Amino acid sequence: MNQSSITAQNATRRIVKRSRRYLLSLSILALAAGPAWAADLPLSGGGKEIVVLMPSRSNAYLAQWIRGAEASAKEDDYKLTVIENNFDQTEQDSQTEQRIALPHQPAAYIWWPADARAGIASLRRLSRTGVPVFQANQAVQPAAKKYVKAYAGVDDFFNGQIAGQNAEAARAAFVAAGNKLSSPGGNLVILKFIPGYSAGDDRERGFMDATKGKPFHVIATEYGGFDNASGYKAMSQLIPRIRGQGIDFVYGMSDGPVTGAVQALEEAGLKPGKNVYLVSATCIADISAIKSAKEFATGVQAAGLEGWFAVNVVARYFAHGDKILPGTYIAPATVDARPQFTEPPSEVNIIPNPPVVVGTNAADAPKVLANFKLWGQTFVDHCVY
Amino acid sequence: MMLEILELSKSYGAVAALSGVSFSAERGKVTALLGENGAGKSTLVKILSGLVVPTEGKIALDGHIIDTSTPDRASKSGVAVVQQEISVLPNLSITENFMLTAPSALLRRAKAASACRAYLDRLGLGDVDVGRPTGSLSVGERQLVEIARMLAQDAQVLVLDEPTAALGDRDIALVHQAVRRLAAEGKVVLYITHRLNELEEICEQAVVLRNGQVADRFATADTSIARVIYAMVGRELNELYPAVGNRAEPDGSSASNLVLTGLRTAGLLGSVDLDLKPGEIVATAGQIGSGFVEPLRAVAGVTAMTAGTMRLQGKAYSPRNHRERCSAGVAYCSADRQLDGFFPDRPVWETMSAPALAASGLWGSANGQRLRRSTDRLADRMTISLAYRDRAVRALSGGNAQKVSIGKWLSNDPQLLLVEEPTRGVDVGARAEVYRVIRSLADQGLSVLFASTDLDEVLGFGERVMIFHNRRQVETLPASALTRDKLATWITHGSCNG
Amino acid sequence: MVAAMVDLSGVRTTASQSAQSKGRGSVAVSLQSLAPIAPIALIFVIAAVAIPGFASGPNLIAVVQASAITGIAAIGAAAITIVGKFVSLAIEQQAVTAAYVFTAVLSIGQPVAVAVAATLIVAVIIGAVQGYLVARGLNPIVTTLAFGSALFGAVVLLSNNRTITLRHNPLAWLGGGTSWGVPNQAVVFVILLAIGTVFLSHTRLGRQIVLCGANPKAAELIGIPISRLVIIAYISAALASALVGMLVVGQVSQASSNMFDGLTIDVVAAILVGGIAIQGGEGQLWRAGVGALILTMLSNIMLLLGLDAGVRLLLKGGLAAAVLLAMTVMRRRSR
Amino acid sequence: MSRLDKGLGLRLGLSILLIVICAIEVDGFATMATLASIVENVALIGLLAAGLMLTMVAGQLDAAVASVAAVSAIIALLLGPYSLVLGIVVALVVAGLYGCGIGWIIARTGVSSLVLTVCMLIGLRGLALILVPQSPAVLADGLLWVSDGLVARVGPTTVLGIIGLVLILALGLGMRCTRLGLSLYAVGGNLERARGSGVNTTKVYMVAFAGSAMLAATAGILAALRSGSASGTGLDSFLLDGVTAAVVGGVSLEGGRGSIINVLLGSLIVRIIAAAAALLGMQSSVESIATGCILLAMLLLDDALGTRRGMKTAARWRVLGRPLRT
């Protein structure tokens, strides 16, 4: 084991410890706030219907989300109906109108707005049916809080924070490996999703928040899309412009664009994992970059787990007699088994988003990944779909 | 009281289409406007209709200068033009076409229908449903609708640009009747035509344009056709129709090229028979709708043969598509060669070489230079000027474009040439050229079958004439046995004793 | 005598005049054919002077590289334009289909040759079906739109909405590698452009495709098999899309449903900005490649200027419109 | 006449067939509520399709409708806090002026309208993103009653549905009963001939594109009011929805043909499928297969019935620029 990888491992441990502590304290808080019914409650929905209004599963992440949600519904004996729109708010509005108008209303609605934060009037009309509405994946807008019982899903701000921690670890390892930072904080490129997609803005804020102690020097922020090809295209065009300044770090909003960026950097003669470190906090589908340690660290934001969790929150809401606890609850990132969720859901329920730091040693990376477990499932189970 | 054209000039860049044209046309008379293609007629018409603004000059009606700077203003000034290309909208009904030129912003369909009914009646279209889309009418009927529409505009100056070019005899008579009535109503009528016989029939005076200038003016009553032609082409035209050359036939009974026996199609009520020898030019004549184009189209494979047999050089022949026809050595030119005769935006040589290219199949290389050179011989034979061979066909005059669209077939060495209306849209000078070229091809063994509504052409250019009436072949006679009157009687009555 | 008279009626110019006008004509022609180059050159010069880093070698290679995918797809799609059937609106969907077929066959353990063959065969079928429908007289825009929609749905459904990631990527060298410092994608692009250009002017098939687009009625009358040519054009467009699909898989080692978002619009824009007459019948294939280059250069310049996404789109649309209008006006003048 | 009837009959038949199938097969389809919602959406998509029909009948195509709708909706909602009415008026005026400009350019330069409007599609999307770079423009709480008002039920439809249908029918009436409307068909039938018949083609193009832009703006504003928000990336699907409805409605891309009733039926067919898919919780990929197949079937049926034949040679794709013969 060489020096750099030991430093990296230390950094990893520190991050994991810190975030564990953070998560633990949060969950304890949440536990303390609720009454302590420790007894195992049966979450049987008796075959009642939950209607999910969401964008199309032609996107792999959403498809995996639905698989998780369906598994969860099966466990808790709910019937899940997914009404898909083609990432189109107008279509979702009409579908909402149609569903609301039907005589047989479901037990609950899960609302995943097509256009980030949009569709507020439809959400309001959903809530007026008297059927509880839960929002998924896209954070609830302040103006819409009163229409939503609870939120379940990812927290893009939190995801950004994890990425920030990953980036800090990367910086430590970068320096420890004997690389010289191009600027005091290190030069950073941010690859955001697409214009107008608010998750990207939230993640960027989270990232900045986590690194505000010693901020990175952001030399470029570019839209890198959701997949490898877009990330590649963005990065390869960006490199000639910013190369002279020195590229130390790349923060991609997910592993898709990061994997593309790795390719672009390599073609430009840079060496990801050697003289440029890449981080993200969302693994998605393609794990080749992290597996070869060309990506320094990522995070497990598992689509399937998110879908499972969303339906579970609904089920728990009913099991506890329509009870919602105030505040935010971040589900614990337990390793070997899924935690027992016995308490009523909170207003905001966030899935765990544990960081995965593989460092820079390609030989060790597969091992790190193989050893990783979240809720009893491996990295591959969560991230490859 | 008259229309006066005062020193009108129009240049396109360095080329002067009209230079200082002045003449007048009286009310109550039909004034013929003559000239070859490119003489400046169409520019003059465009100026009158407001589509083109003259470089210099004015137009006066009854002593007042009128404004024809846009189509709208031209029609407000009382000038109405029946374009050479019919401007009736095919997707609109007859009534709608009328309403299009009506002044009111709101449409009153019922009223308009009865109004246009009256005009149609005047032109003999009384039995046509005014709700029909004009696209479903025959060309002649559309032309009449066009004239009717112009009548409805209450125009003072009526310009008719070759209104009878596409019409059969019956329709021509209708148009003439209409034109005479218009003149009698005291309107100025400018009548453009290539049919010289129309001069004596309906025109009282004539203006001849040549090279953008007025070449001659005369009253038609005391003018010979020779003077007209001289004024148009600048020289006398001795032989419009070339003589039959020395046919290279060893004996009188040479093998037939095309034999039709008992041919029937959906468009025919009777069967057609024909025996076409190599080097022979045969015409089919009849009124529009009489079925006279059917044999050509059946041989061309455009319409299906329903009964009978076709034999080409002794072999059974029934083409299912144009490819099979082409590979059998049969060339076909439709009547609308502006539409399907050539590739307007490509150089002339590409059109000229296209049949050979198509015949060579899809696979293999094609050398552009070689193709270009191979067309030189054809272009020479078609007397297409060297300067034009690399130009787009679009840039050519009507006559030259016709030569290209017929001449292209030579690249394929056809045995049989089928032509509908061989000289439609071709002026007198170029027309002689087209005849001469086809004749010389025939003299080298090509058989020609052409369909024409121009009786002079049928008699002058055809060696034999297949006469059609009421969708039946009524007779086939040597052209020498016919006169214009006799032929007219045949095609209108289906017999020689009208 | 008669010949002279015909010249009088038709030509009405003396020999020297006609030579002169021919000379003018050829000047106009070359100006017209250079029209798409002019904006490129202008933009290039301005950018090279005004923007640091633009004229650097790596940046220019990046531009060519970034235009390669659009360009390759545009070369194929240009066949549809040239044969007179406007454009295909199913380019994205064809590329996605190819990407999925290719990765699916590879991931069940078949050798790369089998995967390539399968992808190309599927492309030929897809192209032939569309070509057949359009040759029957169906509206090409709507047909490809509808077909693309159905195709995309079918592929997504069959793939069970999953992304397929390759563990071992046998086409990585082609999709991502470089030869003599030039990305292989760009090399493929340039080679295809050259092949296509020669094909159109030097083969019977190519020349007949051009004639078919110039006037389908005339082409049919002289025995050119227009239905077959239309089908061939659609097949070639599908094959180009398939190649794009495989190249991108080679580059990113995965197939996902949204990997070609926006490709169709890019391709259409490239064809049109390059100046291929949309009515068909103009056989200058290189224009498609030039169009792709112009567009990529525009976005590259805006990226170098660090403009915001909204501003970038606004300028892209505006500049494309300006190039288009300038070219339209120039072309009309030269006629 | 008979040709029109055949097309109308085909669409009417298909609509009825679909309704019967859905009523039997899809739970909850045969309710007044579903009907109301379908009619509402038919009106919304119909507005777009009717706008597209204006340009398509004139032989052109306005591909920028989606971006125009988005920008207009954003303008209206951004100005909402001051005065919603003002916002809507400004948005419509801006759209109208834009359309006039585009129509003028197309008439004067003969540029391919499809290509030019694709450029506008891209450019205006950029403008939308500039106007609302991050979070969408939202309807203030105090104005949410507007949104509720729009979806309030009125008989077999909603207020939004009635607004849309009234506008569409008014347009249909205008196209049938004014000379301007007839001129649109004339220009689409044959540009040169229309000009020869004294039609002011520049004016016709300006009216067509201004109408198309304003109808798209209306649809965009209505959709945004209904959902209470307008984002920079929103309303993207409007182009495809509108074109699909118009084409299923038998509007010919060759120009010169199309009727409002058929367009409404086209929108209805498209929306019935969408509604059934939503009620069944169908995967969107299945829906896109269904839509694609219906479109193809429609084309093939029209072709077989000959409703599109006959005039192909007359008009040649003017949407692609100047016609072959000038």
From TrEMBL, chain B:
It comes from the Bacteria. Keywords: ATP-binding, Nucleotide-binding, Repeat, Sugar transport, Transport. Residues 3-236, 253-495 form the ABC transporter domain. GO terms for molecular function: ATP binding; ATP hydrolysis activity. The keyword NAD does not apply. It comes from Acidisoma cellulosilyticum. Pfam families: ABC_tran. The keyword ATP-binding applies. This is Sugar ABC transporter ATP-binding protein.
Automatic annotation (TrEMBL), chain D:
CDD domains: TM_PBP1_transp_AraH_like. It is found in: Cell membrane. One of its GO terms (cellular component) is plasma membrane. GO terms for molecular function: transmembrane transporter activity. It holds the Pfam family BPD_transp_2. Keywords: Cell inner membrane, Cell membrane, Membrane, Transmembrane, Transmembrane helix, Transport. The chain crosses the membrane at residues 33-54, 61-79, 85-107, 114-134, 154-174, 204-225, 260-282. It comes from the Bacteria. InterPro entries: ABC_transp_permease (IPR001851). It is a multi-pass membrane protein. This is ABC transporter permease.
